[in-house]
Specification:
Distance between the termini: 33 Å
Order of helices and strands: HHHEEEEEEHEHH
Shape: globular
Strand content: 25-35%
Largest sheet: 5 strands, antiparallel
Protein name: Elongation factor G-binding protein C-terminal treble-clef zinc-finger domain-containing protein
Pfam families: FBP_C
Number of helices: 6
Number of domains: 1
Bound molecules: zinc ion
Strand order of the largest sheet: 1-2-3-6-7
Mean pLDDT: 89
Organism: Streptomyces achromogenes
Low-confidence stretches: none
InterPro entries: EF-G-binding_C
Number of strands: 7
């Protein structure tokens, strides 16, 4: 069944603008104290929400810290992530496991402590993700990953977006499961 165009456009506009309070309340894998203190972007009002499937950001004061927030099944979930800060592997071409964009040195292993007791026992899960957490923009062709960055695919933008969100949902499920 094909949906009317107006509805399909709404389905592409994935995120409603988030507030700092909503983001801080959504963290699933850090303590309430950490969620209160961690760095949330100051420019939330200027983020390109209509083009975002998830909000991702780095802590400008702490290069090894990254965060993301995504609405899944109507609930906002945010993850605190640790990234490897550089190193000899950085120049290798590698592919983001969420959006399947290939970068030279622009993909980082992002590690999330698991939620709840499993996390307290030191368990974590990791995934290779675009270092700038801008998967949504690469998928839409609004940020360029350079030559060979995007696979030539015949599937539609909607399908690429759905696939990216599905990969992210699977990652979040590993963290919370
Ligand atoms: Zn990506």
């Amino acid at each position: 069944m094909r949906l009317p165009k107006s509805i399909r456009q709404i389905s592409l506009a994935r995120m409603k603008p988030l507030t700092e309070a909503e983001i801080r309340a959504a963290f699933v894998n850090c303590s309430k104290g950490e969620a209160k203190r961690l760095s949330v972007p100051r420019d939330l009002a200027d983020r390109p929400w209509d083009d975002l499937d998830y909000l991702g950001w780095r802590d400008p004061q702490a290069p090894d810290r990254a965060y993301l927030a995504v609405e899944l099944d109507g609930r906002l979930k945010a993850l605190a992530l640790r990234t490897s800060a550089g190193g000899p592997g950085q120049a290798r071409r590698s592919m983001c496991r969420l959006c399947l964009t290939t970068h030279s040195g622009g993909v980082s292993l992002m590690v999330a402590r698991k939620a709840g007791r499993a996390g307290q026992q030191g368990n974590s899960v990791g995934a290779y993700i675009c270092s700038d957490l801008a998967c949504s923009l690469y998928v839409r062709g609004k940020r360029d990953a350079g030559v060979g960055g995007r696979l030539h695919e015949t599937i539609t933008l909607e399908e690429r977006i759905e696939r990216t969100v599905a990969h992210l949902a699977a990652f979040v499920a590993k963290v919370t499961g």
